[in-house]
Amino acid sequence: MKGNVDPGWNNKFVVIKKAKCDTCKFKREAKTRTNSKGKWRYLLDAPARGCWFWKGFVKKAGQYGRSQTNFIYATWRKEPKGGCSRD
């Protein structure tokens, strides 16, 4: 999972959240830091069974509001029979 936060979000934190099922709430999993150009990345894990759902966000700062990733990412090792979906 990777992204770029512009403008001026250099060397700041991006919070990574994870949901353990398609109806579960997202909970904070980790924080990662942007580099000097505002780019960040985080290596996602996957459960032995089922799916996990991931998203990243940055807190509001100055005139900019809270912002999150454009997508919700799903990870799995062996896709469940019903598939993984979070609508």
Radius of gyration: 14 Å
What is the domain tally? 1
Which structural class fits the helix and strand makeup?
Answer: mainly beta
What's the β-strand tally? Answer: 7
Query: Into which percent range does the helicity of residues fall?
Result: under 10%
Rounded mean pLDDT is 88
Mass-distribution shape: elongated
SS element count, helices: 0
Q: What series of H and E elements makes up the topology?
A: EEEEEEE
The proportion of strand residues reads 35-45%
The biggest sheet amounts to:
5 strands, antiparallel
Low-confidence spans: pLDDT under 50, at least 5 residues? none
Q: How far apart are the first and last residues' alpha carbons, in Å? A: 20 Å
Description:
The model has no long low-confidence stretch (mean pLDDT 88). This protein has one domain (2-75). It is elongated, with a radius of gyration of 14 Å. With 87 residues, it is mainly beta. A hairpin with a 7-residue loop joins strand 2 (13-19) and strand 3 (27-33). It contains no helices and seven strands.
